[in-house]
Amino acid sequence: MKLRRTRDTGWYEIASTCPICGHKGWCRINKAQTVVHCMRVQSEHYFDSQIGRQYIHQLNEQESPITPPEIEDNHNVEKKPNDYLDGVYQTFLEESILSDFHLSALLKRKMTKKQIQIREYRTLPSQDRHKITKRVSDRLSSPDDLSGVPGFYVKEGKYGPYWTMAGPSGTLIPFRSIYNEITGFQTRVDQPPLELRLKGSIKGRVLREVEKENGLRRAICELIIAGRRLEGGLIEKDVRSTKDAMGEFLCSAELVQGQKYYWWSSSNKLNGSSIGAPIPYHFALPSELMENWNYHNTPDKLLDCSEIWLTEGGLKADIASDALYKPFIGIPGLNSFSIALEPLKAMGCKHLVIAADADVTITPAVELALGNCVEFFANHTDMKISLAMWDISLAKGIDDLVSRLYVPQVTTLVG
Ligand SMILES: [Zn+2]
Questions:
Q1: From the CA of 111, how far away is ligand 1's center (Å)?
Q2: CA 22 to centroid of ligand 1, rounded, Å
Q3: Cα 38 to averaged position of ligand 1 atoms, centre (Å)
Q4: Using one digit for the tens of pLDDT, what is the confidence trace for 174-202?
Q5: Residue 287's closest CA among 266, 276, 303?
Q6: What is the pLDDT of residues 369-380, one digit of tens each?
Q7: Ligand 1 centroid, distance to 35 Cα (angstroms)
Q8: What domains can be seen in the chain, in order of their start residue?
């Protein structure tokens, strides 16, 4: 197992796949490789940390790796404090642009040009990143001022080391604190990685993406059905299903686009930094109030914050805040609700409205996460807690719902 050092001595981030959830990133393990702190698969024992809820799983003898861990050399530096990050990111905003391609994608989501401009979305291009970085660093007192700012790192080049930017290309969504500091960005990536959606008794994985066919993405996949290994090409959204001799459904595999949003970070790169901990939240105000939101002023001076809405994702919070004219907190995922506690308290929130995606009623993992989220705020605050709900046939997320000019129904859970 490949491990990376973390701030907590004796605990390592799992750089290979987590033995509990099978995903990469964020999950932790102890050096003896007997206990996993998984970020995705729930268990009875857990704790809330600055990166979200961590579930404690004891590995039994079969699960625990026999080989000693490989500990990666870590060239990371500590993330800089929020006011420092904001200074560098503000300079970055001035030196970078939003491409026409990314602008038109946002316009398709029914945002106006004015809203898009006020929100300061930017493009993380695939080319010429070092040129933008150079313009940013020329305005700082030294290029090394980029050290510890997630997104930036030092790359070894033919003519020596130079500063540039990490991560897959896409649209950068700024995350703002209650003091209107930009404390990080999420990237809406241009090419979400392809993954398999498997049903029934089947195992499988994507081996590699290959050239598109009729405009659809394609990948060579490995599938294991009843102990037989098959390898072949699958086309995006194409469902392959297998039936037994009696014509009963056995299993199916579908190639789909995976996660679209990632933190913009430069973890494990020279002089780069991870986005956590604490991971950022995003405080969204209606865009027409943004121009009056001065640095270091809290949003309650501009808008009534006794009721605050909570949703997953920065862009979703921006769109919904404009449509409903409410303050929103966007968190990266429903499991990271604990990071919203401090800003909610600081704003004197009395009524929290949780706007989870409508698939909460059909996806057990999402339903559990929502239950934990409600329980957490009920235990840690005396806020009234409500759920914003709508029919899944109208939209999955609140951003799509309000773009179609519907409003959610608000139901109180904790009075
Ligand atoms: Zn895990």
A1: 36
A2: 6
A3: 4
A4: 999 999 999 999 999 999 989 999 988 88
A5: 303
A6: 899 999 999 999
A7: 11
A8: 2-71 (no CATH), 82-190+262-273 (3.90.980.10), 194-257 (no CATH), 284-414 (3.40.1360.10)
